[in-house]
Amino acid sequence: MKPERLFSLIVLLMVVLFWGGCSKREGAKTGGEVKIPVAPAAYADKHIPEGWWTDEKVIAEGKELYEGRKNMDVNCAACHGMGGLPVLTGARDFRDALIVGKWSDGYWFWRVSEGVPDTAMTGWKEKLSEEEIWQVIAYSRTFSQGGKGQ
Questions:
Q1: Predicted TM-score of the model (pTM)
Q2: Distance of alpha carbon 103 from alpha carbon 2, whole angstroms
Q3: Residue 51, Cα to own-chain centre: how many angstroms?
Q4: HSE of 76 in the Cβ direction (CA atoms, 13 Å)?
Q5: CA–CA distances in Å: residue 49 to residues 26, 52, 57
Q6: CA nearest 132: which of 77, 52, 24, 25?
Q7: pLDDT value of position 21
Q8: pLDDT < 50: residue spans in the chain
Q9: Under 8 Å between Cβ of 11 and 18
C-alpha cells in the first residue's frame, strides 16, 4: 500500500472515531423535555464568585482560555466553535438558552472539570485552575445571553 493512501486511511479512521465519540448527547430531548443530570454532591454546591457572570475582565480572561490563546492545552472553540455554534457533531450548542439557562453553577463546573462520559468532552481540571474554569464558564455563557453576561 502506498504511504499516501495509508495516511489517508488513518486520517479518515481518526475522524470517524472522533466523530463517533461526539455523537452521544447528554441532556438530549426526550418527549419535549430536556433532562439535565444532577451534579454530584462534590459539585452541587459550587457557585461562581459573586459578580463574575457580568464582570468584563473575567469574561475577557475566559475568552482567552476558551479560544486556546492563554493555555495551548485547552481550546474549547475547537469543538464548541468560536461563537458557541458547535463545529463537531454532538458538541453542546452554548447559544441554546433553553438548555444552557437550566444549568446550575455546579453543573457547569462539574462538566468543565470532569468532562462528559461517552463523548469527546474531556475534563479540564488537570489543565485549568478553579478560577480559570469559572472564567471559561462565564465567557461560554455569554453565547446564550446575546454576547453579554447574565
A1: 0.76
A2: 50
A3: 21
A4: 30
A5: 26, 6, 13
A6: 52
A7: 44
A8: 16-25, 27-32
A9: no
DSSP at 144:
G
pLDDT at residue number 107: 96
CB neighbour class for 17 (10 Å; exposed up to 12, middle 13-18, buried from 19)? exposed
CB atoms within 10 A of CB 97: 13
Nearest of 138, 131, 133 to residue 56 by alpha carbon: 138
The three three-digit cell numbers of residue 125, written as one number: 481540571
3-class SS of residue 95: coil
CA–CA gap between residue 73 and residue 93 (Å, rounded) = 22
Domains detected in the chain: 3-145 (1.10.760.10)
